[in-house]
Structures are given as structure tokens and as C-alpha cells.
Write a structure and sequence with these properties.
The chain is α+β, with helices and mostly antiparallel strands and 243 residues long. Helices cover 23% and strands 31% of the residues. A hairpin with an 8-residue loop joins β7 and β8.
């Protein structure tokens, strides 16, 4: 009798393993290759990350007439990997950094038939954007919670409009190599409207591109070339300040 019980337990255990493997095999992926011209993007805005409410990295928006749109990439697609790098465990800014890497081809692996869940909000979520396009939540960088580093989302308008701030410092500045800092906020600009950008804050990256080795002119050109839509700024605020 005891042998029958043991055998039954083994059969149940084996069935559970088989069912788990069958469930995993149902998740298929597709590879999308996007050719990118020098100095241009592929037209994809990402959402999600470990520092967002929606942990999975997904396609938040596909810009019209972009390389991604022509390749058939759809909003809501769950991204498994970009350029061979898994999205598991990455923050929103880290996933954007990989997407923005300077290379001629961007390879995106997506999970097939992923439905968009509009009830969830996260970095770059449509629900948060439609609720108030001018208010953006800042997300502390969890890897260094004791520092004054924050991520602020701004909305960049089209037509050559900037993000609404001026810069000071940078590599090869008149005073030597210095960090790029926010020198001025322009009235009515995206930065001023957010209420979360401080004069004197150090600009570490924008749109996933590091600014730490840029001259002021290079940083200005990089900011100007960013496509319209949500832009993630990573800033180091002056010590002892809170926004």
C-alpha cells in the first residue's frame, strides 16, 4: 500500500513538471531587426522596468512612419531582450540605455501575442500620461537610494521645441572639465512645468544616453536630436535638497 502511495506521489509530481514545461513551451518569441541610420532612433518608446509599477518592459509607443512602425512592432508588445541583453531585472532607464546604443541595427526579441493591460501604470504608461501630461513622477534610482540621484520624465514637444532648460559646465568648459549642470529653467518649458528640475542639478543622462563625458555643445546637440515624446532625465540633485 505504501508503495502505491509513493508511486502516486511520483506520478503527481511528474505531471506537475510536465504541465510546467508545457506552459513554458507555449511562450514563443519573435525577433525583429531594425536598421538604424547614424544619429537617429528606431521610433520606439519603452515602458516598465523594476523601478516602475509595471515590471515588464513593454512597447509604450511606436512613432508613426518610423523604422519600428514599418517593421510591424506594436504597442503593448512585451520585450524579452534588446541586442541580446535580457530585460529581466533592469530599471526603465537601463532598458532605454540599451535601446539607444549607437549601432547600425537594433535587435528586439518580443513575446508573441502579448496583450496590453491598460489597468496597470508604470514608467511611460498611457494611463499616467493621459491623466496629466504635464506632471511626471520622479523615480529614485534604487541601486543608490542614499544618493540624490533621481529620474524625471519630461514630455518633449515636436517642432524643434526643447526641454526648457539651459546647461553649464561640461568637458572642456572655460573652467576646465566640470559636470554638466542645469543653469536655467525657461518659463513655460517642460522642465519648469514639471516642478521637479532644480537649477544646479547635475545632468547624468537623457533619453538613455550618458552625458557625463560630453561638452556643453555635444550635450545640447544630443538633447536637440531626441525624438518628440517622453524623455527620461537622470539627475543628481544638490545635496540636501528635495523636490
Amino acid at each position: 500500500k505504501s508503495d502505491k502511495i509513493i508511486n502516486n506521489k511520483k506520478e503527481v509530481s511528474n505531471n506537475k513538471i510536465d504541465n510546467k514545461l508545457n506552459d513554458q513551451s507555449k511562450t514563443s518569441t519573435s525577433i525583429i531587426r531594425l536598421k538604424k541610420a547614424v544619429g537617429s532612433g528606431v521610433g520606439v518608446i519603452l515602458a516598465g522596468g523594476t523601478d516602475c509599477e509595471a515590471k515588464d518592459v513593454t512597447v509604450h509607443r511606436v512613432l508613426a512612419d518610423s523604422v519600428a512602425a514599418k517593421a510591424g512592432l506594436k504597442r503593448g508588445a512585451k520585450i524579452k531582450a534588446i541586442n541580446g541583453c535580457t530585460m529581466i531585472g533592469l530599471t526603465h532607464a537601463q532598458s532605454v540605455t540599451i535601446l539607444k546604443e549607437q549601432r547600425s541595427e537594433v535587435i528586439i526579441e518580443i513575446e508573441d501575442e502579448t496583450a496590453t493591460n491598460d489597468s496597470k501604470t508604470g514608467c511611460g504608461s498611457e494611463k499616467a500620461e493621459s491623466k496629466d501630461r504635464h506632471k511626471r513622477d520622479e523615480v529614485p534610482v534604487k541601486e543608490d537610494s542614499s544618493s540624490d540621484i533621481v529620474t524625471v520624465m519630461l514630455e518633449k514637444a515636436g517642432g524643434g521645441t526643447g526641454l526648457g532648460f539651459g546647461l553649464d559646465g561640461g568637458r572642456d568648459s572655460p573652467h576646465g572639465d566640470r559636470p554638466l549642470t542645469i543653469k536655467k529653467l525657461f518659463a513655460g518649458g517642460a522642465a519648469a512645468q514639471s516642478g521637479r528640475i532644480l537649477v544646479g542639478a547635475e545632468l547624468l543622462s537623457a533619453g538613455g544616453q550618458s552625458m557625463e563625458t560630453f561638452t556643453r555643445t555635444q550635450a545640447w546637440a544630443a538633447l536637440k536630436s531626441l525624438p518628440a515624446g517622453p524623455v527620461a532625465l537622470v539627475l543628481r540633485n544638490p545635496k540636501g535638497t528635495k523636490v
